[in-house]
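TEACHING EXERCISE
Course module: macromolecular assemblies
Task: Read the component lines below, then compare them to the predicted structure of the full complex.
Student: A.B.
Group: 4
Components provided:
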Amino acid sequence: MSAALETVIGLEVHVELSTKSKMFCGCLNEFGADPNTHVCPVCLGMPGTLPVINKRAVEFLCKAGFALECTVAPFSKFDRKNYFYPDMPKNYQISQYDMPLTTGGRVVLPSGKAIRLNRIHLEEDTGKNVHAGGHMTTSEATLIDYNRAGVPLMEIVSEPEIGSPDEAEQYLMVLRDVMLYIGVSDVKMHEGSLRCDANVSIRPLGTKELGTKTEIKNMNSFKSVVAALEHEISRQHACVASGERIVQETRGWDEVRGLTYSMRSKEQAHDYRYFPDPDLPPLSLDEATLASWRSELPELPAQRRERFITQYGIPQYDANVLTQSRFDADYFEAVASASGDPKQASNWLMGDVRKSLEAHGLTLSTSKMTPAALGELISMVKGGAITGRAAKEVCDVLVAAGGDPKAIVEQRGLAQVSDESAIVAIVDKVIAAQAESVAAYKGGKAKALDFIVGQVMRESRGRANVDVVKRLLMERLG
Amino acid sequence: METGHEIREAIARRDRSAEEVTRAALDAIGRVEPSLRAYITLLPERALAKAREVDAKIAKGEPVGKLAGVPTAVKDLFCLKDALTTCGSKILANFKPPFSSTVVERLDSADAVIVGKTNMDEFAMGSSCENSAFFPTRNPYDLEGVPGGSSGGSASTVGARSVPLAVGTDTGGSIREPASFCNIVGVKPTYGRVSRYGMIAFASSLDQAGPMTADVRDAADLLGAIAGFDPMDSTSVDVPVPDYGVGLRDDLKGVRIGIVRDFEDSIAVDPKMAKLYKDAYEDLRKLGATFVDVTLPHAKYGLATYYLIAPAECSSNLARYDGTRYGVRVDGDADVYAMFDKTRTAGFGDEVKRRIVLGTYALCSGYYDAYYVRAQKVRTLMKHDFDTAFAACDVIACPAVSCPPFELGAKSDPVAMYLMDYFTIPMSLAGIPAMSVPGGFVDGLPVGLQICAPAFEEARMLAVAHAYEQATRHAAKLQPVVS
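Instructor-supplied answer key:
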């Protein structure tokens, strides 16, 4: 019975570190270049070449470790993981086996649940096989692009404590946010700088022992992680329901068909023949270096979220959204300071700014609107220089093209009109045109007044001072 | 041909031009090459161009490098930009690297004249040069005999006096044993003393490049030119390189020499060999040295330890030769793993395959702790043995080999061949410097004396070897059968 079973998920997340150069050579670490242009004898595994550790990659991994409350090992080593695959130039991958750079640590989900980490280790990425003319089974040739070979990669291994596909997604989102905050990776799943494998099993609710697991690979987006996990869990439930045994195996996620398929069984699993890489002496990190890396860590998303709630008094939901990226959070704080009104800053960013960004296909980081401009716009509304309605129009212009809000207001003639003589004419015109609504209002339908006010505002192109409009209408309609 | 330092001085005095010297060396090589076959590739154009460059510098009064104009051979596992670099293997029969090894770059900047790439056992696995995928090299003192290995080509060409300097590599004895066989000086420096960058790997934790030369002074000069920290090799050590030529001595007063008691039974098997070494120690004593008995209790496990660690590392190091990126490819009919299989089956020789299989097995989960981890522990004990020994002596003198050069085909049993490294492997495992210096003759064929020192004490080792060499002058007592 599926109701009596619980899901156990462990994730192995690979994150490419955004160092300037590769893990063991001087080649550029850059996505999207022409094939085989960022390669050298070392990352091509030419005879006689030797690896040299990229210190920056070690620093990045340690910072990630500190951010996730891991224990950073002052002494670790690199090992060779041996297996043959054409995208791997040496037919072994330099990785870390039994002495990873960090152990322990945890990822705290928005719900407050903490998923413990097993370890984070440093390794080199492989190249990429490109199947010319489509799919692996139908293409005429396989080409290999070694630009990615040797890119620094950290593998973050969780304990099997994730309870659902939703939690898995949250876990990935928290990891992504943290990596962006500390600036060690651009964590773009579609570019492969964040990749994820999942170990999935089910067990009777309340039991301790883990069920037989399957490892799921080839999930290329957060959505596909959720879909693949959901599918795999229901497949395992079906297995149990029909009395079948769950087989320990590696399964691939087929995005198109929406199902997982068997790749290889436990019996076919590689013996990686790990042993310490004799080309690299053990890595030792002194106290002072580790302390200075730790001190360089910025405020992390969870801490910042709490501070936003207490310091600015904004709702939890808004704080969650605003702290998702370091850029957005910095932006919010700049607007809050420029406008002197953090709540309004939050309201604008969560509301009208977001709508405009979406409409123009932009983000805060790609839009030309500066925090100072948005702050000034908010101040202008508060000071009565423009109406809230006109400000929406200015905001949209700012989002799309940037500029100075005052100049836009002037150009477009959007300054608020409070002068009665100018508004009276519009009010009278609307009363004349909307006889039906006027009659309804007079007949006791109070809501009809809102409609008439709206019409006046529309007629004034949002400029009329709404308080003045309401007063004039009341005077005339009694 | 004279020694490298004599040539260098003659060129510096302008008695001869580097070009003349180079042409003479190329002629000498050409005369004996049909019988010796020491080279896989000769580089006459590169050599002459370099010689002219040296001559031009001297003509303009510009400073020249420490090895200016000296003809030098390099083992065919040092990558040399755009030149064939085969490592003695069919799988690299067409490989021209797009970069040069640090050793080659340092030879170039010392203004040495590189004349060619020497023959070797495939991937440096062997003790006779018979495992070359291309052809065997002969011993210049006995054309039916092997020159030793794996640096057999380098030993043969220096032994024939075609060139005074060659660079070889030593993993378990591959410089010292062929030096012994070919009546020359061969130095395996401390692990980490010379950069391994661009030197095709056999066993990374053991491989070390070193000089193979006409005399000890040449070895000192050549080591000085190639040694030193290299940021491209994380296992190279940042210890200053002294001028090794300065400290060479002519007597051994006050020097305490350790004699390894554990080796006595092994060498006593051959009374002629035992006598040769007894005489050698006596020559050292006459020079003023005092003797200390030392023991290396774990030396008897050296071979077993070595044949786990070296194959384990080689099984991984040689995985890259799969036909995908460089070297020879055998097509696999659209199946990449079939391509790997066919390429490696056709490309590697028997000894290489034997060691890959051995090493793969030793690293398998389930066997790893019993073999690889245990071997590493023995290795640590071996280091402690030497530490203890060197607490009581300055250098150790011991046999380099158990026999004089043997005939081609004489050792068809792999283990018999492995035993050739019995006296050289312990030092390799401990990472300490060791060398072979001509020590006399058995049955009319050369035999070397091994001298070893604590890590980074090459100067001390060379000083002792120099005093011994100057007093005995064994090398000059026997002429090559070809010239």
